[in-house]
Amino acid sequence: MKSPLAVSKELGPLVRRVWEASPTFRRQCARLGEAVVTIVIELDPKMDREKMNAFTRIDMAHGLVRAATTQLRVWEPEYLAHEIEHVLEHVDGVDLRRSARGGLEGVRETQSRVFETARAIAIGRVVAREVAQWGVDR
């Protein structure tokens, strides 16, 4: 299977380490591959989108996710997995706007008009733990 992530030579070894360390991250990538979604991952230390650490633009076609671009202010496996989970939320058809407006716990719209979810936060933290544990055990 072709990798669903397009990364620079600079980020390649870092992403590979996350792949090796995190079964959760590997499952995320498998789901992206099944959905035929490619995510371009960019490191942009000058990113200034309301002081966010990461941001993803998702490209849809005919109601389906086709591609996404993720910008990371700093490299952190947690931010990468968090943003990938936001893409998977769209793949799953989660209506974040409706969920936030309906008061669904774990989904909120920020002042910047972007959505934050407990699901993405939790997955990011799981991947960060897996990577940290892998580094200690190796």
Reported for the largest beta sheet, the result is: 4 strands, mixed
- Domain count: the total is 1
Q: Radius of gyration from the CA trace?
A: 15 Å
Order of helices and strands: EHHEEEHHEEH
Write out key terms for the chains shown.
138 residues; alpha/beta; four-stranded mixed beta sheet; two-stranded antiparallel sheet; 5 helices
Question: How would you characterize the overall build of this protein?
Answer:
This protein is α/β, with parallel strands linked by helices. It has one domain. The chain is 46% helix and 22% strand. The protein has 5 helices and 6 strands; from the N terminus they run E-H-H-E-E-E-H-H-E-E-H. The strands form 2 sheets. The protein has a 4-stranded mixed β-sheet with strand order 1-2-4-3, covered by helices on one side. Strand 5 and strand 6 form a beta hairpin. Helix 3 packs across helix 5. The longest helix has 20 residues. It is globular, with a radius of gyration of 15 Å. The model has no long low-confidence stretch (mean pLDDT 89).
What layout of secondary structure does this protein have?
Blueprint: E1 5-6, H1 12-21, H2 23-34, E2 38-43, E3 54-61, E4 64-72, H3 77-91, H4 96-101, E5 107-109, E6 115-117, H5 118-137
Parallel strand pairs: 1-2, 2-4
Antiparallel strand pairs: 3-4, 5-6
Give a concise summary.
This protein is of the alpha/beta class and 138 residues long. It has helices spanning 12-21, 23-34, 77-91, 96-101, 118-137, and strands spanning 5-6, 38-43, 54-61, 64-72, 107-109, 115-117.
